[in-house]
Amino acid sequence: MNPVLHWRKSTYSDGGAGDTCVEIAELPLRTAVRDSKLPARAALSFPTASFSAFVTALNAGDLQRG
């Protein structure tokens, strides 16, 4: 049985058009991510610890565009 996912967007997503965002849903051991413009498409899921490390690196400015 698939769990019911409760999707949410960042409060920072209101800037601009507000449609270039991702949504996340928290599961017991994973975090699911999907495109807010195409919610019916497949979502990606990552181990919660890995997703948290990714968000921490983003907020710290440790990631650069290539």
From TrEMBL:
Lineage top rank: taxon: Bacteria
Span of domain DUF397: 5-58
Protein name: Toxin-antitoxin system, toxin component
Organism name: Streptomyces acidiscabies
